[in-house]
Amino acid sequence: MADNKVAFELVSPERLVVSMPVDMVVVPGGDGDFGVLPGHAPLIASVRPGVIEIYEGRQVSDRIFVSGGFAEVTSERCTVLAEAAMRVADIDVGKAETDLRDAEAALAEAADGTARADAERMIGVAQGKLDAVKRAH
Fold first, then answer.
1. How many helices (H) does the chain have, and how many strands (E)?
2. Distance between the two ends of the chain, CA-based, in angstroms?
3. CB–CB of 33/23 below 8 Å?
4. Mean pLDDT over residues 116-127, rounded?
């Protein structure tokens, strides 16, 4: 890879979403967002529901919502294995609002820790989608 680019790949269970050299990528890590530039220190991190921002030059060229997953970073590459991924522009706000209400109802009715954890995860994904759309406008 050229010294001034990072090879970025975003993979979901269904398909390879992105595979291209980029100037920088910002990933919603489990412990906070992190940016990856050429020469980054090796890292493996969890990915929380949020938006991956792909930079060309100093401009964001693409925003992709991921529902979680893992990232592996080397000095030349950033690979994100996402549970699900979709471009922010493709998020259906009405469906995300419905998903959020359903998840909140599921949390209220959760009978055990596993059901609570599942409902909280669904809330995080739905709220993350709504936040992504708000940030984009």
1. 2, 10
2. 34
3. no
4. 92
Rounded to two decimals, the pTM is 0.88
CA–CA separation, 109 vs 45, rounded Å?
32
CATH architecture type of domain 6-88: Sandwich (2.60)
- Domain coordinates in residue numbering, the chain: 6-88, 91-136
- What is the mean pLDDT of the segment spanning 68-87? 96
- In whole angstroms, what is the distance from residue 6 CA to residue 76 CA? 5
- Here the tokens at position 19 are 């595979």
In tens, the pLDDT along 95-117 reads 999 999 999 999 999 889 999 99
CA-nearest of 88, 90, 69, 91 to 80 is: 69
